Structure formats: structure tokens, C-alpha cells
Amino acid sequence: MKCKWVNKYWLIDYLRFIIIKLYIKKYFIL
Q1: The organism sits in which domain of life (predicted)?
Q2: Which 8-state DSSP code applies to residue 30?
Q3: Could you read off the pLDDT of 1-30 as tens digits, one per residue?
């Protein structure tokens, strides 16, 4: 259970990082 929770949180953090990167890319293009 604990491992699953940690994995879930890591996944959320990773997705957030990707979204921020894409957002910055969009701004640079515009």
C-alpha cells in the first residue's frame, strides 16, 4: 500500500512537470 501511494504521488509530480514544460514551450512559441 505504501509503495503504491508513493508511486501515485511520483506520477502526479511527473505529470505536473511535463505540463509545466509544455506550458513554457507554448509561451516561447507565442
Answers
A1: Eukaryota
A2: -
A3: 566 666 788 889 999 999 999 999 888 866
